[in-house]
Amino acid sequence: MEENFDLLVIGGGPGGYVCAIRAAQLGLKVACVESRGTLGGTCLNVGCIPSKSLLNSSELYKKAKTSFNNIGIEVNGVKLNLEKIMMNKGKSVQVLTKGVEFLFKKNKVTYIKGKAVLFSKNDVVVYESNKKTNYKAKNIVIATGSESTSLPGIKIDEKDIVSSTGALSLKKVPKKLIVIGGGYIGLEMGSVWSRLGSEVTVIEFLNHITPGMDMEISKEFQKILSKQGIKFQLESKVVSVKKSKIGVQVDYVNNKNGSKEKIDCDKVLVSVGRKPYTEGLNLSKVGVNKDIKGGIEVNKKFQTSVPNIYAIGDVIKGPMLAHKAEEEGIAVAEILAGQAGHVNYDVIPGVIYTSPEVAYVGKTEEQLKEKKIPFKVGKFPFLANSRAKVNNEPEGFVKILAEIKTDKILGVHIIGPHCGDMIAEMALAMEFGASAEDVARTCHAHPTHTEAIKEAALAVDKRPIHF
């Protein structure tokens, strides 16, 4: 017998499960379909969460091996147990995915396991094993996320040539690791294996890492990673990756002089971006239009070309970030319940969870120059921050960009300790339209890393106290 729902969400990742829970809270009868077998999507299963576990473990290992003795914690014979590190990662993932299942039960969301296929604007068939079940829904939300991409002719086998998924589960530390792509994921995973003992080289097509980031931060970031032992081959185009008798051979061309180079290594991580995952949904049959990049076209209310079918997260335009998908999920749920759901795309923070971290929100200096928006800059180094100094974390700085006439904060860029948490203060300030003066006059606890934000805000008006 068919079951009818007010809303059926396809995809149980951060966008999908959050949308389902919020819609249920607002009184809708909701189901969520997920094909993976566990909830949480790429983020919880093979993305944000397991990678942060490895980043944390690898950082602790590196500190125990190289810097604990310097501060009077004498540790001898530090050993790496990669199997235990991976078990800890797996346990974290399991706890969190089960947690989402509990939230579904608590909020009375029907959890359906299987692969969903659209048959009309209101009909969804879910296939699981040899069974198929029909469901009717007044509204449908597509939240199927994204998948890793590769380069032409490079086949990912998740053993020797891996995507971020394979890089999370290597059986042993590779002696040499090549990372193709100098973006967030490649640098995070590269730093994990570098700390654990790999010789890591990043090959990037552009003349800088982290495309789209504020250039001053990007240059400082590369400088710090280079000091940590990560090597960079910039302005280089990878032309082939092939297995050899001793491992994997990467051939690339120098974009500036056309010279051909090659590197032999144990493993290659292909990290050149992600693409929307819409395979097998039957979108064309029901009339849902795609954009030129293979994503789904939506209007400001997240409606597709079929008005009762919505799309959120990585399948639509915008940064492929879990928290962006969550905000869109909540917005759609509230729109369906008759409320004014909204996402402020100007205030979506981004974080790279290396050590030190990199975080940003709002516009970069380059974007403001391109749009001819007059701005002033305030910067403050962590070298002059007392908490960072006593914690032996002096690298990096806070950079605040504010409009010249109004002093309104337009962008904030931080490289330094704990800035992934610190950026929330500035996202909140920008959400409320704060000026640099507002932040400068807000009392910050001493001694904390956040005092660097206050000082950078003071520096916008050329009056920092401690630098």
Characteristics:
FAD/NAD(P)-binding domain; 14 helices; alpha/beta; 7-stranded mixed sheet; Enolase-like, domain 1; 3 domains
Can you put this structure into words, describing what you see?
The protein is 32% helix and 26% strand. By secondary structure, the protein is an alpha/beta fold. It has 3 domains: 3-147 and 275-343, FAD/NAD(P)-binding domain (3-Layer(bba) Sandwich); 161-272, FAD/NAD(P)-binding domain (3-Layer(bba) Sandwich); 347-460, Enolase-like, domain 1, CATH 3.30.390. Strands 1, 2, 3, 4, 5, 6 and 17 form a 7-stranded mixed sheet that branches. It has a 5-stranded parallel sheet with strand order 8-15-9-10-11. A 5-stranded antiparallel sheet has the order 18-19-22-21-20, sandwiched between helices. Helix 1 (14-25) links the parallel strand 1 (3-10) and strand 2. Helix 1 (14-25) packs parallel to helix 9 (322-336), helix 3 (48-66) packs antiparallel against helix 4 (82-106) and helix 3 runs parallel beside helix 6. It is globular and about 65 Å long. The model has no long low-confidence stretch (mean pLDDT 97).
